[in-house]
Structure formats: C-alpha cells, structure tokens
Amino acid sequence: MLNRLLSNDLPRSRWLAVLLVVLFLGLAFAPFLFPGVKALNVAAKVLIFVALVASFDLLLGYTGIVSFAHTMFFGIGAYGVAIALNAAEEPSWGAIGLGVVCALAISLVLSLLIGLFSLRVRAIFFAMITLAVASAFLTLASQLSDITGGEDGLNFSVPRLLSPGFTLTEEPLQTPLGEVDVNGRVITYYLLFVVVCGVFLTLLRIVNSPFGRVLQAIRENDFRAEALGYRTVVYRTLSSVLSASFATVAGCLLALWLRYNGPDTSLSFEIMLDILLIVVIGGMGTMYGALIGSVLFVLAQSYLQDLLRLAGGAVEGVPLLSALLTPDRWLLWLGLLFVLSVYHFPSGIVGKLRERAARKGAA
C-alpha cells in the first residue's frame, strides 16, 4: 500500500526513511508538538515551500529547465485568492474557489505561451527570458494599485471557519500530546497540510510515470530523446505548465494563511533564490529533497537569529567572536551553512544518503 502511495519511489535508504517519517510526523502534529504562534507560522511556511520547491524541481531537477519565472506563478495564485476575497461582499468558499480557478487559468495561459515561444531557446537564453517576464509581472503588480493594492498589497478576510477568532470547541482539546485550542488557524494549517500532501503525492506520481521518464531522458540528452521520436518541445511545455499550476496552488495557500498579499510577499526575487537554495540543499531530481531542504532552510531562516543571540551572550567579552555571533550576522552564517552543505553534499542530502546506502548494499 505504501509502495503504491509513493509511486514505487521508496527512500532507498534507512536513514532517509527515518528522517522523512520524523519530518512528516512533526508537520502532521505541529500544532500539538510545537505550541505557539511563531512555531505554527514556521510549520505553515515549510508546507508552502514544500509544494513550491517540489513544483520547481519538476522543471529543474527532472526536466533540466532553468526558469526564473516560478515566483510569478506563485504570485498569481496568491493574488488570485487575495483579489477574489477582497472584492467579495462577504468572504466565502465560493470566492476562494473563483480565485483559485482564475489564477490557475491565467497561469495555464502564461506558462503555455512561455513554453511555446521560449522553450525552443536553449539554456541561459531561456532563463533570461523567464527572468524578464517575471520582472515585468512584478512591475505590473506594483503599478496596478486599483486591482492589486500596489506596493501596499491587499488585506482581506477569510471564511469564518478559517478566521483566527473561530473556535471549534469551547474548551481546549485534550490529547496525549497536550491540549490545543482548535481555532481557525489550526484548521487552516490542516487545510494546508492536506493540500500539500496531495500536491506532493501527485508530483511523485508524475515523475515516476512514463511521462516523467521521458522528462528525465530530455534532461540527460534532449537530442537523443528527439532522435527516439519524442517531441521534446511538447514534453518540456507540458512540464512547464504542470510546474506553474502547482506553484499557483502554493501561492493560493500562502494567501489563505497570511490573509494578505503584496509584491514582496509572493513575487520577490529573493523567494526565487530561496527556492534554488532549497533544491540544491535537498537534492535536485528528488521530490523528497523538497521536504528535507524546506524544513532545514526555513528552520535556519526562522531560528538562526535566536541561536546567534544565545551564542553571542555566551561569548560576550570575546572581541572577535562576540562581533561574529550577533543576530545581525545571520545571513553570513546562513550563507556559510549553504556553502558547507554544497561542499559536503554535492548531490544534495537525499542524493548523499542514497549513495551511502547503495555503497553499503554493493559491499
């Protein structure tokens, strides 16, 4: 049953399997295991990045396409829900559905156009085209203030079931893991969890299907794949459309969680850099890398400053160390951690664990 659920793509490493189970259970029971507003926000951000990074890995890791327009589709999803709920007289599930459908339709058209007109261009030229399109969309979203709210973005309300003021029970729910107040935020979190699990398993099925095998053949040698009779432009375009659609879904989830969206929230080029870092850390061409990389990156991004603050207090009075171990230096340490991870795990964490397991099995 598990083998079928994972599309016959098992971890193939005992340590990787243990790590994946721990991370899955941690995310599944995050509201109970890690109480507090910040911890729940971090867990929700991890879920959103899992869907976003996994959809990008379909392009980069499995098809070999370098695109910088991924955040554009992420932003389209977020703006679709934000505009629909902001325009609605009362927040409703119908408005959310309308926003999701419109966002998916726009992403479908744009990704199809980019694919048809640009995917015949090779390597760096296609990447530059996608970067130009994403930059143009960011400028457009910032200037159309009547629709998008401009630089200030859009604040909106969500259905009562998802609002923070809603409580499912009058008393906190008693569980073996402790008590938790089942409010709108917890319900929204589990909505994110279910949707992201669905997205992840769907992507896992796609990359392990005959279609996914063709994508991997194109990644390895597109000329040979073309010689075997596969229309590589069609497959690359379909990969681009699927990737954009799942990124749009991730953007919709972001808007529902934040109840706000603006250009810096979903369209920033910094998000694109974060996606690239996570893919490299987790491992390109491995869907499991999206989960592991997202958890490690978001945790470092959220708690590294707190750790540096504690470390700085411990070495207070030591001139050089106290200057380095300050919260303001967190980007320096994050970059150092990234360099070390690439140096020690050139194929990503998932790739490294699978290589070690394969060597032990061969021995």
By DSSP (H or I, 4+ residues per run), the number of helices equals 18
CA radius of gyration = 21 Å
Query: How would the global form be characterised?
Result: globular
| Estimated share of beta-strand residues | under 5%
What sequence of helices (H) and strands (E) makes up the elements? HHHHHHHHEEEHHHHEHHHHHH
Domains, number: 1
Question: What's the topology here?
Answer:
Elements lengths: L1 H4 L8 H15 L1 H4 L3 H27 L6 H18 L5 H26 L4 H21 L1 H4 L5 E2 L17 E3 L2 E3 L3 H24 L2 H11 L1 H6 L4 H27 L1 E2 L1 H4 L2 H14 L4 H28 L4 H6 L5 H15 L3 H15 L1
Antiparallel strand pairs: 1-4, 2-3
Overview of this protein structure:
The protein is globular. Helix 5 (70-87) runs antiparallel to helix 6 (93-118). It has one domain: ABC transporter involved in vitamin B12 uptake, BtuC. Helix content is 74%, strand content 3%. The chain has 18 helices and four strands. Strands 1-4 form a two-stranded antiparallel ribbon. The model has no long low-confidence stretch (mean pLDDT 88). The chain has helices at residues 2-5, 14-28, 30-33, 37-63, 70-87, 93-118, 123-143, 145-148, 184-207, 210-220, 222-227, 232-258, 263-266, 269-282, 287-314, 319-324, 330-344, 348-362, and strands spanning 154-155, 173-175, 178-180, 260-261. By secondary structure, it is an all-alpha fold.
